[in-house]
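ARCHIVE CARD
SHELF: 3
SLOT: left
DATA:
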Amino acid sequence: MEFASMYAQFGSHVTIIDKSSKILGHFEPEIAEQAKNDLEEDGVSFLLESNLTGVNDTLNGVTLTISTPKGIKNIQADGLLVATGRKANVTDLHLERTSIKTGSHGEILVNDILETDAKDVYALGDVNGGPQFTYISLDDWRIMANHLYGDKTRSRLNRPVFANTVFLNPAISSVGKTEAQLNEAGIDYKVLKMPAASVP
């Protein structure tokens, strides 16, 4: 979504092809729907519940074949950006030369205070397999610093709720659980809503 927003701001026409029936599923539905509307206003098109089934190079870019709920669609495009997720970037660390263990996705395995199995070696941020948000990396530093210089009380187990942001135009952020997660957990809650346009 961030790349789609960025390229649309640069003036490109962007089409998002996604298997899901909606975007930004970890946000409240009305926030995700507003973000979709904002992206559409910026010129982004969506082919949801769709699969990319073919890519052919052409003299002018690529031809994409997409299976959509309405049938097969072909799109001529200058380029294709494939977002397949992220993984820990540890290749150049040469961990095979150490006793540091990695998990099934290449992440560095750590305990609750971010220590690896090598003495005095910690792994912070995206490399340790936790949520991949800037705010988590910052809190990882707080945990490590607390254990090196503080009272040794912080850990991933008592991490406070954290914010996450998707940098669209405008950016959207969330903190804590969604309404659906609260319902699922059986937690009582109150919903208060105010459109951002009402904020002076």
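SLOT: right
DATA:
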Amino acid sequence: MFQGASSLSLDAKGRLSMPTRHRDALGAALTITKHPHGCLMVFPRTAWEQFRERIANLPMSAQWWKRIFLGNAMDVEMDGSGRLLVSPELRAGAGISKDVVLLGMGAHFELWDAQVYAAQEAEAMKAEMPDVFKDFSF
């Protein structure tokens, strides 16, 4: 289970240096794809394969969601220095240029443009909590 946030920067070639604490659990084979909220999802290959199967089995009414998740998926390999290349197409699709936030979300990570994430998080914090949290104890 991945959790926690890391503020990172992409290098000039669009490579992300994965935090050391996550490298062993991730493995070298990863898949990156778009998320409908405007970020990217980074999966270890085994978790991606499970997610991909669930998406592929959706009905035709979800065809556009299949295109978003499966049609944009790119397999990548982490290099010996723990870097992975985020393709120009995926970076453009998520508005990512240099500074990013990497969020552990359980079985995968979300990769956000740092400014976009900060703005969306601030909006979410101003809004009322969803009903599912009404009986949640903090």
